[in-house]
């Protein structure tokens, strides 16, 4: 691939960028993406006033890059979602032209669900899109934030319309919505146990126990089934990330927490049996 000139903030890092190859996917809409869902943007960690870095996902066995605390929270939440089987960060960039308006847009996350439906997410804080209207004409900072939010909402309306035109699912994922989906402490507890090993014998015993229990059993009882782990409860929770098991992410994680089979086929079998 041709070597492009890196931006000034990347000087000295020896960064080689892929040439952007744009494909028209609809009139006025072009798309650029890298192979294997690699992030299309280079994350620069210096001189930022917000969190940047990556969340290591045990679900997909790779890092998911993030550029803010809400994005990190969203990546961790999707990692624990029982129906999510794959996660990519900044998977593509669109160039959208509507009349004289030209917009360049990159979604924050792309999640693939168990039914192979792909959903692109724009992660935002509610207050960044809906700040309070300044009360005083002299509030320069307040009006700056107000105008920035107005422009962001207008851009996202164009983005939503573009994705609808090409038949792709795009959704805003706000911090208020994440509050309704999961308790951050419960997500953190599950993530902290990611990577704990569960051997095949314990996997079979645990699955057989859940099937015999109608598809659900308390974490403490599930942990008693596990024989070959130094922390059986953690090994069970790690299977939530693997998308084999599921828990209520809004509730606290303790030994009474119900553990259930996440696989719909297994759920139906447990109910039928």
TrEMBL record:
Superkingdom, natural source: Bacteria
GO MF: nucleic acid binding
TnsA endonuclease N-terminal domain: residues covered: 81-166
InterPro entries in the cross-refs: TnsA_N, tRNA_endonuc-like_dom_sf
Protein name, UniProt field: TnsA endonuclease N-terminal domain-containing protein
